[in-house]
Design brief:
With 336 residues, this protein is α/β, with parallel strands linked by helices. The protein has ten helices and twelve strands. It is 35% helix and 16% strand. It binds 4'-deoxy-4'-aminopyridoxal-5'-phosphate. 4'-deoxy-4'-aminopyridoxal-5'-phosphate binds next to helix 6.
Length: 336
């Protein structure tokens, strides 16, 4: 019989899938663009990897004791990963999130058995009910432990130990370029360092929403979720990226929808952003001697299921003035 004893055994070892139509016309002999499909992790995102590694380390160091409580200010993929691992290992989870977080996102965490504490957005940070104060108070209770994905070295380490080696083995060492978005910077720092240790010629390329600090912005708002920052996280290795490609929200969303419609890959906006950067890079390399043997791996962090009312909703896109495939409101044909 073929089975595993726990869902946690299925974290990682995600496949590489070739991207074709979504990358536009590329020469037959390269570059080859391969997507590392992280939504196939059991919790639905790349964050399962860091959740497991951070919890393993906290167990080993004694910071997390049997029956303890994990407290993290998150409402997204990291929360799902932590909730999944915590549940299987008998820990309690409390996630603190601002009231602007959608009910759907909170309900996902509750479905795994986690507790969700919602804080008002409309109070100053020093207020006792603020997001920061509530999570600090909960994390200082006996038995509580806060992973803090923005400063925890086990975040990048999980990618150094799993994602990086998987990509190296799957491409048989032929990877020439690695492209990924950056939030905490854990993915690019861990994977980038591993790949460069195997072959210093591997180019590590960050994809970043216009406005984020990683591409020289000031923290101006953008709509793609999970990537870009308005500060420099400790988990980001500032020496790892050879280059950062800035991508607009419009291009990220257009590519996100194209991945669903042409590659049957229902992924989130940060995946579209990374794939768009990979496409720009592939077209720069196409036709050059370097392009022939180029193997570009682009990491797609999560599924599009969590964004059906946003990126995949025509009215939402139109509300922000982004083009929708087919016919636009003024009758022009847009997209593909
Ligand atoms: N995409 C999504 C949807 C995410 O949730 C995250 C993590 N914040 C990222 C990309 C970026 O990954 P990292 O934090 O490893 O830089």
């Amino acid at each position: 019989m073929q089975y595993v004893n726990s869902l946690l055994e299925l974290i990682g070892n995600t496949p590489l899938v070739r991207l074709s139509t979504s990358m536009g016309d590329l020469p037959q002999d390269g570059p080859l663009v391969l997507a590392k499909v992280e939504y196939l992790n059991p919790g639905g995102s790349v964050k399962d990897r860091i959740a497991e590694r951070m919890i393993d380390a906290a167990e080993a160091s004694g910071e997390l004791q049997p029956g303890g409580t994990i407290v993290e200010p998150t409402s997204g993929n990291t929360g799902v990963g932590l909730a999944m691992v915590a549940q299987r290992r008998g820990y309690k989870c409390i996630f603190v999130c601002p009231d602007k977080v959608s009910e759907d996102k909170r309900n996902v965490l509750k479905a795994y058995g986690a507790e969700v504490v919602v804080c008002p957005t409309a109070v100053p940070p020093e207020h006792p009910d603020s997001y920061y104060n509530v999570s600090d108070r909960l994390a200082s209770q006996p038995g509580a432990w806060k992973p803090d994905q923005y400063s925890n070295p086990n975040n990048p380490r999980s990618h150094y130990e799993t994602t990086g080696p998987e990509i190296w083995a799957q491409t048989e060492g032929r990877i020439t370029h690695f492209v990924t978005g950056m939030g905490t910077g854990g993915t690019i720092s861990g994977v980038g360092r591993y790949l460069k240790e195997q072959n210093p010629a591997v180019q590590v390329i960050g994809a970043d929403p216009s406005g984020s600090v990683y591409s020289g912005g000031s923290g101006r708002p953008y709509l793609v979720e999970g990537v870009g920052e308005d500060f420099w996280p400790e988990t980001y290795d500032r020496g790892v990226a050879d280059r950062v490609i800035e991508v607009s929200d419009a291009d990220s969303f257009a590519m996100t929808r194209k991945l669903a419609r042409t590659e049957a890959m229902l992924v989130g906006g940060s995946s579209g952003m990374a794939a768009q950067a990979a496409k720009v890079l592939a077209h720069e390399l196409a036709g050059t001697p370097e392009g022939k043997d180029a193997v570009i791996v682009v990491l797609l962090p999560d599924s599009g299921r969590g964004y059906l009312t946003k990126v995949f909703n025509d009215d939402w896109l139109a509300q922000y003035g982004f083009p929708v495939e087919g016919t636009s409101r003024d009758g022009r044909t847009v997209g593909e």
